[in-house]
Amino acid sequence: MITFYGVVERSDGNREFSMRITGSDRGHAQGRADVRLNRDRNEVEVISMNGRMGRNNFTGTFSRN
To answer: How crowded is the C-beta side of 20, counted as CA atoms within 13 Å?
Structure first.
């Protein structure tokens, strides 16, 4: 498991937001994560992310559906 840190740059004010990734618990990381929460806004429904960590690129999508 990797924990990413960042800054929310865009939000619809309800359930969706985009985060600029600025670091991780495993070292330097940069990229973007787009997140949609469930209707209760207490669980992630979909997350899509891509970026670079060290010398490696990463990309991934998680969906509860």
So the answer is: 4
